């Protein structure tokens, strides 16, 4: 190819990542750092060789069909690829990559924050002190649930799930998990494998979701499955909002079936769910699981590594389609 490949970067990345991209590619930036509409995304992807999007850009089948012949790769700045129709990309001959591994620590850390924030009224307590409304204390005041010694259930024991399990072990929790395939001993590290989702739910004092969003997992946490959890369990979701039926979750939190929920992801993003936000027994974050300086640099570099591999005639290491 004559000259540098043309690369559209859809959102603002860290300075070092953008500098490296500008060194090796003819970069088009989204200076406003806002989500492109469906039509804008199609228009911006014309006449480029590559696009480096985030999970906020939706490459549905109709978007992909309208992309034209030039685009060779969608090099995602995310591990999740549920925002890309992989079958449509495959059919169109467009390579798709993601950024696994590099965000596992940061995301597992935020799962711990969500767990503790939910178990110990982190948001309610913070808001009370900030608002100058902390005017009372007693042994019966703001009593949460201790996680030490409890059972930490991992739904989806991939890279992030495994690190979250390690962190939970650090809190003296016993780890249970369900995964499509059982892990070998050196990865399982004594965790208890459940060959059904139902089996896992029945023993999860804290249930932490770490599975990808697919047709099979959409709404996997719903009225029926919540009923299987031990009474007063805690739900943690740092994966994708649509794994959870939010009205069913809200009902369970209101009834006290669930003690609390710690959520970094929602069905509607950005924005979240006002009915969830109205509850006291939730700890809510704005999808910042991978938002550390270290991880955002690493994700950007990993996406660029994938682009470099393709444009130098090789195979990107993180190809998913
Ligand atoms: C991911 O990498 O999938 C995170 O959710 C951030 O996009």
From TrEMBL:
Residue stretches making up the D-isomer specific 2-hydroxyacid dehydrogenase NAD-binding domain: 114-289
Classification via Gene3D superfamilies: NAD(P)-binding Rossmann-like Domain
Ranges of residues in domain D-isomer specific 2-hydroxyacid dehydrogenase catalytic: 23-320
Pfam families on file: 2-Hacid_dh, 2-Hacid_dh_C
GO MF term (any one): NAD binding
Keyword Oxidoreductase: yes
Entry-linked InterPro entries: D-isomer_2-hydroxyacid_DH, D-isomer_2_OHA_DH_cat_dom, D-isomer_DH_CS, D-isomer_DH_NAD-bd, NAD(P)-bd_dom_sf
Highest taxon listed in the record's lineage: Bacteria
GO cellular component terms listed in the entry, alphabetical order: cytosol
NAD recorded as keyword: yes
Keywords: NAD, Oxidoreductase
PANTHER family (alphabetical): 2-HYDROXYACID DEHYDROGENASE-RELATED, GLYOXYLATE_HYDROXYPYRUVATE REDUCTASE B
Protein's UniProt name: Dihydrofolate reductase
Organism: Thalassospira alkalitolerans
